[in-house]
Amino acid sequence: MLGLEVARVGLDDDGKARLEVGVGRYERELYDTRHGGEPPPEALAAAVRIVREQRQAGLPSHPANQLAPGRWLRAVLVAHPELVGAARLEPASPPVERTGVGDRVPAPAVGTDTGGGPLVVVASAGVDLELVPVAQDARLAAAERLGLDPGRIRLVLALPAGADHPVTARLAALLRAPAEVVAVTADWRSLPA
Questions:
Q1: 68-190 has which CATH code?
Q2: Domain boundary assignment for the chain
Q3: I need a labelling partner for 169 at 20 to 30 A (CA). Which of 19, 101, 123, 137 fits?
Q4: pLDDT tens-digit series, residues 114-123
């Protein structure tokens, strides 16, 4: 939901699958401690409603609108691939696994550009010196999966306008196959995803 996971399927002690509701491991554990057992359908609906209501531009600070901003930006880009010159995008796993919901790990997406070529877009919502190496690792993972030379895959670093710091562009230009930095409209949080 807008880049936040509100539920996941886990295994109970008997190895049986069960739904766990909550944003992040601690919230899921808290819900389980308080209520135990399988959550009712209204619990999942409530989690979705809270995230949908709070993950909007212009609202006071709330965990739902502060957590994982790069994943939120990626959700917007998947819904509006034209913002980064893409024809189609879908979320991809980051090469560096997040250890918690509060981790600010760049969020990759893969797809095709408007010319039909392979494309990797990596979204970050702020100045992040790890963006370029993580993006290059995402391109390498996509190249391996597609059986392509990494240099044949266009790499775009998507940042909100104002977060596209010149050092990011300089680092992106140092790659063997340089990456492009695209500044997404500053009001990206207002766009539907």
A1: 3.40.1350
A2: 7-65, 68-190
A3: 101
A4: 999 999 999 9
The whole-angstrom separation of Cα 21 and Cα 89 is: 27
> What tens digit of pLDDT does each residue of 130-154 get?
999 999 999 999 999 999 999 999 9
> Cα separation of 83 and 77, whole Å?
7
Rounded to two decimals, what is the model's pTM? 0.84
> What is the C-alpha to C-alpha distance for residues 76 and 190, in angstroms, rounded to an integer?
9
Distance CA 87, CA 95 (A): 23
- Gap between the Cα atoms of 159 and 34, Å rounded: 39
Helices assigned H by DSSP within 3-68:
25-35, 41-54, 63-66
Q: Tell how far CA 89 is from the center of its chain.
A: 12
Four-CA torsion 180, 174, 95, 130, nearest 10 degrees? -90
